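Weekly modeling sync, notes
Attendees: S.R. (lead), two postdocs, one rotation student

Agenda item 3: backlog of single-chain predictions. S.R. asked that every request posted to the team notebook include the full sequence so nobody has to chase files. The rotation student volunteered to paste the first one in as an example of the format we agreed on. Action items at the bottom.

Example entry:
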Amino acid sequence: GSDYNARTNSLGQQSGTFDIAQVQLEEGTVATPFEHRPISVELSLAQRYFEKVNYSVGAVAGTSANRATRFPFRFAVDKRATPDVIISSSSNTRCNTPTASEIYTTSVTLRATNNNTDNDDYSAQGSFTAEIEL
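Predicted structure, as returned to the notebook:
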């Protein structure tokens, strides 16, 4: 009746969409108080499953080619399990894909190999993601 018309008209007819905020879905028949978590808490909870790290690291000159240098990275938040680490490198000297023994729930160690024979410094820049399936 008239109550239905008043409600539909209150949404307006501009775009046919409306926003919903502060919804909390719960299992069961008893509602608990609405949980207000700070964005920093939400971020740390999400980073247990996914994190992207941009890196720019360098190594000093060496005297032989193919000398590997290791770069350890501590995750911002401990992962809930050992993550898959995928490198997306953007430089000529890229880090190698880490082996299982270089990946932990707390950190990952990347390796870059100096292929130069001129004893120059070298660097590696790029990014990697650490991801765990839900």
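Discussion: group reviewed the output briefly. The chain has a mean pLDDT of 79.
Action items: rotation student to repeat for the remaining queue; S.R. to check formatting next week.
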